[in-house]
## 1
Amino acid sequence: MDVSGAGAPIAAVVGVVGTLLSALLTQRAAERGRRGEQERAERVQARAREAEERRTCCVALNTASRQYLAALTDQLHALMRREDSRAVAQRLTEARDLHRDVYAEAQMRLRDPVLALAGEVTHALGALYGELRRLNDGVPRPGDSLDAAQWEIDALWEGLRGLRRGMRADLGASELSRPGPGAPDPRLFRTNPGASRASSGC
């Protein structure tokens, strides 16, 4: 029996099987590579969507907070001038409601350090709202006064600048290595001994 002649078909079969296996392994490796690239692309897209959602949330919160504080300022001025403040009060209610909704969304999206700043500002806005309502209704509590409200408004504008700075740093728009001008002070809204800090439910 010719051994060399019998081995030729076997070698051919082995060669064909090897070629097929090589092609199959190459195809599977390519598929794994494509899946890996797709997963990486999806992760990048998810991070980009999350960043855009946080940016949109920060813009909305900054805008709503400023509008709320502007409406509170208008209410204070109306009280100081002792003029009919019904239209001003209506705008204030609308600004408060908008801020409440935006802040509720922010609680689900903002990172904890920024959310802590937003919570401090929101609490102070709500306390000032309650104080102005009591002054408007003629039922002030000890410490409620127009002067105290003006002081709190000034402190809140500083607080909003600090919140905005914190949001910008979180979004990568600026650095926040240490508190500087306009940075939030944790005691910012609690240093007026004559001001009432009762919550208004915000």
## 2
Amino acid sequence: MPAPTPPGPTPASPEVAEIERALTRVTYLGSRTRHHDRLRTLADVPLDRAAVALLRQIADWEPMRPGEVAHRLGVEASHVTRTVQQLHRAGYVTRVPDPDDRRAQRIRLTDAGRLAVGRVREAGAAEMQRALAGWRPGELRQLATLFHRMVDDFLAYSAETEGEPGQPAAGRAGPGPAGERDPEDRE
């Protein structure tokens, strides 16, 4: 008797399909070279996209092992190693001993790295403020809360399915104002 075939993927609801489409559009817009070059100019931070992405990850989760950064960014460890070396030479990051394994190192931002991340984030937030100028404060708060909730759920799902390192413990939110959920919001 043949083995039973595992069920295929469950089709997404129309709402989830629309969210996926919107996220794809936002991701595309945010990852364009022209967008990065504009933010880099506004922030006066002379770093390429890979370096800025790495600095942002470290700022949110520091100190991190290079392998954790690579996993979070979905890139090869060698890319992170090269970028960390570049950022270390430029004075944006430093290496510190890993308290869990003295043979390993973690990456931490320097004051210059914190300043660079802050400037990039300020420039990005200012651009977003202009783009969303027609939104009411309550709408913006709701969107921020829901985005953080979605990211937290993505991280939790990823940790469950991929065994992703460095995730927040269950019930603890990552960076941002989300994390607390109203049980009545669940359907």
## 3
Amino acid sequence: MRKSYVAAHVYMIVGVLSGLYYRELTKINDFEGETQLGVLHTHLLALGMLVFLIVLGLDKVFGLSGTKQFTYFFWFYNAGLSITCLSMLYRGTQTVLGHEVPELFSLVGGLGHIILTVGLVLFFILLGNRLKEHESAARTESTEQTEPTEPVNSSI
């Protein structure tokens, strides 16, 4: 669970700093227009901080962390989000500075999204498995509670 908390905290800090970077870089360069920096802030806060806060809550309920599946999800998701956001940072900065952005960075951003998607698929597989285990345990517990116990002696 600690991993999710730390990830959410780091994404919150980086997300806030990226908003500051966007504002200051565009102000210093008198830039008015569309740039990837405008949505970088939102990507980091929503796909980073908020997702990991949700994962933290689900982990508390279903015990997701500490498994090999969780580790795979965690690293794929973070790698995909990092590649995507670094691509956005580079592309946005070059746009504000008036430089040409090589087409390669569209491919890099796409690769980041693909890796991010793999991480999400892994997460849903893990969550689905844990839900099945949780439901199975609840049914077993319910069955044990409804089984008749020894009759109470009513002749007292």
## 4
Amino acid sequence: MASRSTAPEKRPGFFSQIRSLYTFTKSEFRWLPFGLIGALLIGVGLGVLIGFLIPPVQIWSIILWGVSGLLFGLLFAMILLTRLSTRVMYKKLDGMPGAVGHVLSTGLGRRWVTSDMPVGVNPRTQDAVYRAVGRGGVVIVGEGSRGRLKRLVEDERKKVARVASGVNVEVFYVGHEEGDVPIARLAKTIKALPKTVDRATLAAVVKRIDSVSKSVTSLPIPKGIDPMRARAQRPR
């Protein structure tokens, strides 16, 4: 019998991640190569210009400033690539079942308690309700048709009210209709909520809500969006 390999899975290298990120982003922004080259040239140009403006003007000084400008150009190019790739990721996630769970579990940070699994779901339509708990209170997010979500949202609101009386509860619907929050702005909208819950109260609220939460892992809804299918890995 062949023995199983115990070697850890090899992670993609730095340049491999850059290449994947570039390919992923270029699929939506065809002008990306020109933008990245432009960022490099602007950086080098600014560096050389500073070298000429700062006395004494010497060739070695111009070269050093040019190299510094190249490094800043690389930084600008990476920032441009990262921001554009984020826009592409949200565009691909928009409208996909489980997109809200992915954004909540990866976009809010450690200060919010979330999950990529919904706390309420309609198995037939895949309309789902997600929950996030943090210093801004309890946030209920509906994914799907607002009309079909009303009952699921109200059930979750009542459940939270029973165990977290006095805690602020916010409800958001993800979509493009009037009053909806676009998926690209969901994390920012939740983070912008005023902090109304202190740390001690937050820990108690999380514990009480978890105690009454029901598992929906057996329901036929995607567990979440696979980040590898939604975007390329960012370089580390």
